[in-house]
Amino acid sequence: MDNFKAFECVVEYLENIILCSDEVDYNVISKIAGCPAPLFQRIFVYITGITISEYLRKRRLTLAGYDIRNSSEKIIDIAMKYGFNSHAAFTRAFKEHHKVSPSSVRKFGKPLHDYPRTSFTNIRIVGGKRIMAELKKIEYVEFGARKIVGMMKMTSFQKAGEECWGSAFKEGVFDRIQEIERWICKDMDDYIGLGHMSKFVGKDHFQYIIGKFVELDAPVPEKMYSENISAGTFAKIWIESDNLNDIFDCAYLLCSEAIEKTGYKIDFENFYWCDVYTYDRYCTPLEKGQKIILDYLLPVIKDE
């Protein structure tokens, strides 16, 4: 199943739990989407402008409005059906969403503010605008075993910039890595640093290491973190845009689509996600006010 069809299946899962008032199981979402839940959550917010939990709330209130308008069922029973435990809580939420009270819809047929089911079928148009990043290049490389050395934090997409990169520069992480310069892997284009995401937890957290790849026998500077990286085949992908946020928002969509079309698939058994900031494609264009390119590395396997 390709990623866009898988994403549609996630929407189907969300629609199916609207009436049973179940909490979202992000492990289920991860299995259906074929990617870690935090990555899917970021994609979902980019497509819809709201989180998954907000989507469910808006959809439940939309369907509750239909039931109030089109049936004689008691309003409190409708509230309970869509997961609200009191008339007061339901009325507050209903008025916030629809701008009218449930009783005014029932008695006077006041108009509702619908929130329709979302769709990933037309992924190139998002919120009325085209995706603002472009895949410039994809190639497959064989990397030997290595390790990453740097600063490690558990973080989220919302906090990774300041919490991780800001701290890394403030604490002189890359200056300390230069102490082991002779061990830095030479099979990559010159880069200022990379971010390595793995160990995705729940709906939006993951382990993030900011640092560089070094040889396995490299010493680890004091108070720095290291983790071994297995040898394997990797997709090396360049994504270009005018700004970093546009790249972040749709990088996974563009990368996964390109990988599928070229006879490979993402290796989720050994999954991690690397954003690499090269001097030539990122640092220099950024200083000149030009379009920037962010390099991505993902472990892949042949799609047999």
UniProtKB/TrEMBL annotation:
Residues 8-108 form the HTH araC/xylS-type domain. Keywords: DNA-binding, Transcription, Transcription regulation. GO terms for molecular function: DNA-binding transcription factor activity; sequence-specific DNA binding. It holds the Pfam family HTH_18. It comes from the Bacteria. This is AraC family transcriptional regulator.
